[in-house]
């Protein structure tokens, strides 16, 4: 099930310290064979609602069904006109209303494909007629499927539009209605594909509208909107887009052309973000505000080492820190490749040095609270001395980190957290860690994503393109199609395939490092699942499944398709690690000691590089090595790849 709303990268408007939580009684994936009548009513006259449709279109309960993972509303021309309350109706439509109401602060979204007729396809909110001050309507999307020469001029493009309204209707308190509108043209007809239409009811005076996860416009209502409203989905007729006398597409269209399909409806509310209580996030660069510098831990790890600021470098491991959630809003920052954390020392006094110390889960000298200062900057406040925060003067290389009394206006204690790019842009093989099989996509399997034995063909090569925050598009080199979860599905076992573009979140992937050159891949539309080999099957379609750090079927090696050199090691109980792996220009060997001897052999046993260790984290140049497999020797113990 979807864990977050559908927002494109960088488009999520939630405030810092908040997270979206699904509102279940206003959300539905429509995965059954019948309407959930605890959530929706399809009878037009019920629960205080009395509108039966705008003539000549009549709402009928039997027009609404659920099948194939969709809510479906069918429009049609009656064989014989129907008379209701003395009014003649020629066409049948339908209306679906939520049982529960929603209000301020909620985000409403639907994935909808319009019918292709002169009748409407809509997704909107409406208050009940029980408050003369608040008879309000929020039309998130209002469109038609086909226009004709009889269509009014203002609506000639309403079959290819994202159109929204904020309407305050006439009441005994307010005799004059007020309507505010917003619209943009879509890149194709509303009936040609599914679109995701969304609205954040941010405040009584601000409505923000999103198309396919991208912000497009906001509307300021003519009067404040703060009364509870109900979700509506109505297929009706309009006098400004009249159905032709011969019935138009309502009469002549195929069944599929006469159906509006809703893949899902989802509603979200904001709540305070909940700490995970010990989970680890990705690596971050802790950058100082008033200078292009970041916190640096120097080479390797040493207990008691002074911490300093140094020129910003996203690729320098000495400036990369693992953020560890300690619960209750506190975090520790462990230097990458070590077991040492940023430590503020005992107590808190002005100018007290901040050092690198051996990590301790319960050591509150290493626990820091992120005080949100706005614009992406934070003050890092010491847990057991809450009057003091992390501080560094100026922007000169080598300036020390110290504790200083809290001052939200002091830019020397304002820090930003940047995520270093995990995978460089380029061509890669996506290889299972539990077999030698690789991911491919080809026409033979209708461009599904399939595991297959290693071959040097372009259908096994994938082009990674970084969009920011370690979100990538992943394009197959052979067919130029992008890895995706079809139709933005989010359930366990949904097959993964490829598509011709990557404009939506279900075609973008978050790369999550699991250590030692191993990664998980999470689709951006549904971050609680990950790319998965079903039960470790070979020669089989990959799928998405609920993410688990311990699930080996979700762990992948992303190996350069060209110019790669592999140094995978065999564990022997020593805490020796080699990274990055595979490598292009260098490798770093951690856990060694000064004076040790490192040799690199090719597969014929020839020494191609050797060096004496000078640091605990020894970096070796590999730029002169040809692509292939190598043996690394550390003293007399062998690690083979």
List the helices and strands and how they pair.
Elements: E1 18-22, E2 40-41, E3 57-59, E4 64-67, E5 70-74, E6 76-84, E7 87-102, E8 107-113, E9 120-126, E10 136-144, E11 161-168, E12 178-185, E13 195-203, E14 206-211, E15 214-219, E16 229-235, H1 248-252, E17 259-272, E18 280-288, E19 293-296, E20 305-306, E21 308-311, E22 321-327, E23 330-335, E24 340-343, E25 355-358, E26 368-374, E27 377-382, E28 388-392, E29 401-405, E30 415-418, E31 426-432, E32 438-441, E33 449-452, E34 462-468, E35 471-476, E36 482-484, E37 494-495, E38 497-499, E39 509-515, E40 518-523, E41 529-532, E42 543-546, E43 556-560, E44 565-566, E45 577-579, E46 586-590, E47 597-602, E48 607-612, E49 617-621, E50 628-634, E51 637-640
Parallel strand pairs: 3-7, 44-50
Antiparallel strand pairs: 1-17, 2-7, 4-5, 5-17, 6-7, 7-16, 8-13, 8-17, 9-10, 9-16, 10-11, 11-12, 13-14, 14-15, 18-22, 18-30, 19-21, 20-25, 22-23, 23-26, 24-25, 26-27, 27-30, 28-29, 31-34, 31-43, 32-33, 34-35, 35-39, 36-38, 37-42, 39-40, 40-43, 41-42, 45-46, 46-49, 47-48, 47-50, 50-51
- Class per helix and strand makeup: mainly beta
Query: Rg from C-alpha positions?
Result: 30 Å
- Reading off the top of the CATH hierarchy, the class of the largest domain is best stated as Mainly Beta
Residue stretches low in confidence (pLDDT < 50, at least 5 long) are 274-281, 563-575, 636-641
End-to-end CA span: 40 Å
The appropriate CATH architecture of the largest domain is Sandwich
Q: Kindly state the mean pLDDT as a whole number?
A: 87
Helix content: under 10%
How is the main sheet built? Answer: 9 strands, mixed
CATH topology of the largest domain: Jelly Rolls
Number of helices: 1
Please give the domain count: 4
Number of strands: 51
Q: What shape does the CA trace take?
A: globular
- Which percent band covers the strand fraction? over 45%
